[in-house]
């Protein structure tokens, strides 16, 4: 029998309490080259498009369901009908977790403030403080189930089966999360949180936590004042008594799969589920697709799945198929061998091609000066691409002298250029999406204004270096 060695899942490991890791040190620790599906840039761009209409209908229905089920629950209070009524209300309420997740990526709505409103609302509902979890989730995508780097590993090894069972009602993960919110309301983050939330951003987390504490405290006082816990049945508590579906679906994402591998086909699952669950879970059952390309909004994930499924393991046909394989694996991890994991069969046709189409390196010198100026200035202009290569609101990458740049086109002949690598965690921006005059990074959906390089959406913070770009004939040049 193998020894049950406990892994060290702390983000700070042996350095705890000494020096929080900064971005550079994290990059040093893990040289990650994640597998990317082979898909054309044109197809990917179509899949990444945002639109408010589907999300407005989706969220409108969700709020209507909350109101109707909540009203039925009030009417049933004091009768046995309250049990099914609150179970339904709590299940819909707890599906706020999927909405927190999607809005955190900023992909459901095209309009940014709509994403933000629903992000903060659903973060509160699912008891994940919004600013903390934005940073946490960025780290999860960078280091998906990498021990000591991913703060969101749901099933650590040796697997704790009691915790897994209790979390069907959020009883093991929920209370520490509430305690963490209270700690943050007093400005006291622990070492792990200090590790992934930048110091300059923590004040937002503190204030947001105070608002959460004030609202939940207000409902608790209301319950005390009227001598009934009915008010609490509508805020905070539903995340516990209605949490079963979140746990049932959430476990399918990564539990029992391989840790420390840079291939989402081995550490993330896709499973087919019924339309009701898909709606409540916002298509996150296509989790392998989501992790491979997080910029694709929830409603386009089935299409992404169809486009790349010949490169990925066979999806599980239903939840039963997942649990039939996963439960014995978790028992084995808990009782015999923490190193045991499920291995997914990869299709023989699969490739490790990158999403980003490589652009040929441009070395041809200018045959004619782009601007009427001195020769020495003209030599600084570099041909980046053909005008025809860039549609409106598009981006393309190119390499010059071994350095990667990104060239953007907004409307007409509005061309811009910047460094090609995101300042957050080194993703290639040419694989991203141009939206509202910004480039959205393909890795964590951070954004930069393409006209001046300013970081406009977390987790991007440091600005991008930008370059002057101009059209000359049918070519685009950038001034380096
Ligand atoms: S790598 Fe994180 S936002 Fe770009």
Give an account of the 3D structure.
The chain has 480 residues and is an alpha+beta fold. Helices cover 41% and strands 10% of the residues. The chain has helices at residues 23-29, 41-48, 52-76, 82-94, 96-105, 112-125, 130-142, 161-166, 174-185, 191-196, 202-226, 238-241, 244-254, 264-267, 275-280, 287-292, 301-308, 319-335, 375-378, and strands spanning 381-386, 394-400, 403-409, 415-419, 433-435, 438-440, 447-449, 455-457, 466-472, 475-479. A six-stranded antiparallel β-sheet has the order 1-10-9-4-3-2, with no helix packed on it. Strands 5-6-7-8 form a four-stranded antiparallel β-sheet, with no helix packed on it. Helix 9 (174-185) packs across helix 11. The longest helix has 25 residues, at 52-76. Residues 14-31 and 351-378 have low confidence and may be disordered.
List the keywords.
480 residues; alpha+beta; Rieske Iron-sulfur Protein; 2 domains; six-stranded antiparallel sheet; binds FE2/S2 (inorganic) cluster
Tell me the Rg in angstroms.
Answer: 24 Å
End-to-end CA span: 62 Å
Number of domains: 2
**Count of β-strands:** 10
* Strand fraction: 5-15%
Largest sheet: 6 strands, antiparallel
Poorly predicted regions are 14-31, 351-378
Output mean pLDDT: 88
Given helix and strand content, the structural type is: alpha+beta
């Amino acid at each position: 029998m193998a020894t049950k060695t406990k892994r060290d899942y702390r983000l700070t490991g042996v350095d705890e309490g000494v020096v929080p890791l900064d971005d550079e040190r994290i990059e040093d620790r893990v040289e990650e080259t994640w597998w990317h599906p082979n898909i054309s840039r044109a197809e990917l761009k179509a899949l990444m498009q945002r639109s408010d209409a589907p999300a407005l209908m989706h969220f409108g229905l969700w709020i209507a369901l909350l109101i109707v089920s909540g009203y039925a629950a009030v009417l049933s209070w004091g009768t046995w009908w309250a049990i099914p009524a609150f179970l339904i209300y709590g299940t819909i309420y707890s599906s706020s977790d999927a909405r927190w997740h999607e809005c955190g990526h900023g992909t459901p709505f095209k309009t940014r403030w709509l994403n933000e409103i629903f992000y903060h609302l659903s973060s509160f509902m699912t008891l994940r403080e919004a600013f903390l979890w934005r940073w946490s989730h960025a780290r999860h995508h960078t280091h998906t189930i990498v021990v000591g780097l991913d703060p969101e590993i749901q099933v650590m090894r040796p697997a704790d089966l009691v915790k897994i069972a209790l979390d069907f009602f959020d009883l093991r993960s929920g209370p520490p999360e509430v305690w963490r919110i209270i700690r943050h309301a007093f400005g006291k983050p622990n070492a792990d949180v200090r590790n992934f939330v930048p110091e300059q951003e923590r004040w937002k987390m503190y204030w947001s936590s105070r608002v959460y504490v004030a609202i939940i405290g207000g409902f608790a006082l209301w319950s005390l004042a009227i001598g009934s816990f009915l008010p609490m049945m509508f805020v905070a508590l539903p995340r516990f008594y209605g949490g079963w579906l979140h746990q049932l679906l959430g476990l399918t994402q990564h539990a029992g799969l391989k840790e420390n591998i840079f291939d989402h086909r081995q550490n993330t699952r896709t499973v087919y589920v019924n339309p009701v669950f898909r709606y409540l879970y916002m298509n996150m059952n296509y989790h392998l697709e989501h992790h491979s390309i997080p910029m694709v909004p929830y409603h386009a994930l089935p299409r992404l799945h169809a486009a790349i499924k010949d490169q990925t393991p066979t999806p599980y046909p239903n939840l039963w198929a997942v649990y039939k394989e996963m439960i014995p694996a978790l028992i084995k991890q808990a009782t015999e061998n923490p190193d045991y994991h499920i291995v997914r069969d990869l299709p023989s046709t699969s490739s490790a091609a990158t999403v980003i189409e490589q652009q040929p390196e441009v070395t041809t010198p200018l045959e004619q000066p782009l601007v009427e100026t001195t020769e020495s200035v003209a030599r600084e202009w570099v041909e980046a691409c053909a005008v025809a290569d860039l549609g409106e609101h598009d981006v393309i990458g190119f390499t010059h002298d071994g350095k990667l740049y990104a060239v953007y086109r907004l409307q007409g002949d509005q061309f811009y250029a910047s460094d090609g690598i995101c300042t957050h965690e080194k993703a290639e921006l040419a694989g991203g999406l141009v939206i509202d005059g910004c480039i959205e990074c393909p890795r964590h959906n951070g954004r930069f204004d393409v006209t001046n390089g300013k970081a406009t959406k977390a987790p991007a913070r440091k600005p991008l270096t930008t370059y002057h770009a101009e059209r000359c004939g049918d070519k685009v040049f950038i001034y380096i």
